[in-house]
Amino acid sequence: MNIPFSPRPPLLSQRWSSRGNPRPLLRRAWATDRLLTLVGLAMLVTLAGTLVGLVVDHRVITGVPAWLKPAKFAISISIYSFTFLWLLGYIQGHPRLVRLAAVVTAIGFVAEMVVIAGQVLRGTTSHFNLATPLDGFLFERMRDFIIAVFLMNLLAGILLLRQRLTDPVFATALRLGLFISLIGMGVAILMVVPIPAQRPAFDAGFGGAHTIGLPDGGPGLPVVGWSTAGGDLRAPHFVGLHALQIMPLLGWLLSRRRFDALGVRGRLALVWTAGLTYLGLILILTWQALRGQPLIHPDPTTLTALVLLAAAAALVVLAVIIRSQRRASPIPSAV
Predict the structure, then answer these.
(1) Which of 52, 108, 281, 305 has the fewest CB atoms inside 10 Å of its own CB, making it the most exposed?
(2) What global pTM score does this model have?
(3) How far is CA 137 from CA 111, 114, 119, 144, in A?
């Protein structure tokens, strides 16, 4: 069953907008999948618990407060769960596959949080920990569950490609966001495979590392912990994951009537420009990290790449605006 074409998408204003009241949004999420909705809500409760842990438990694991990682993952999982439910709400005619994607994602996230919090209770780290057979088993199972979440994201992307949505601009942004987030997830693969940049971590007996060129746990940025002394793959991983929210939001904004003067082709050009620029940023940040370079200390080569990327995007945006203004300008009549 396909959604018929209409000039305006239902989008947030009709399908998910709550006008300050979260109940309609929660009802929609509940109707899409109850289990994943419960996981999203449970992560908010988990977040509250981890904040208490940050106050009363002063232990430090890998250079940061013990409960900081569970807190960050609780926030991330909750945001991802509700965003994924929102995206699944646009898929019609495949209820079993939608249910599969939601349930597997929910189970994967619960398993990941159980391992992360459980390892904090044991006083050790969850990621890349092969210190004991139990630590290795927990890390490997957590990795397997996240691979399953990745595959469910891919499944949703394939279903959305087959879905006829109501607005080509928003539809393109939705699909680009999903597939760019897949690439962001894929960056994490570089953390756990024995590429040359990761060889020191494997030689030291770990199953991978976030940091390139230095052991994990060194000086880092506040809250996120990204290394300020070496490369850190968490930066492109984070940026890539949040394409899932940023690209659909951009598509929604460009679908508003205030941008009608750009025309459908112009707005599509802006969406594709934003998507390719976003992808380029992920690739540059990954390249920077793999060279052992801190995010906040880019070298001239990295800066040049970033400037060229921004300049190319700006030129396309400028060209789209100029074209739309020429189309809108009346043609002077002959005297």
Answers:
(1) 52
(2) 0.85
(3) 13, 13, 12, 11
Find out if CATH 3.40.50 is the number for domain 1-164: no
Domain spans of the chain? Answer: 1-164, 167-335
Range picked from 4-8, 253-257, 300-304 for highest mean pLDDT: 300-304
Residues 284/309, Cβ–Cβ less than 8 Å: yes
Q: Looking at residue 212, what DSSP letter applies?
A: E
CB 48 within 8 A of CB 206: no
Tokens of 292: 């052992």
Q: Mind giving me the DSSP string for 108-132?
A: HHHHHHHHHHHHHHTTS--TT--SS
Contact 91, 159 (CB under 8 A): yes
Give the tokens for residue 157: 């992307």
Between 70-74, 137-141, 216-220, 267-271, the lowest mean confidence (pLDDT) is in: 216-220
3-state secondary structure of 211: strand
Distance CA 103, CA 332 (A): 61
CB contact set of 144 (below 8 Å; sequence gap of 6+)? none
Q: List Cα–Cα distances, 170 to 7, 35, 140, 159, 323, in angstroms.
A: 11, 27, 38, 16, 21
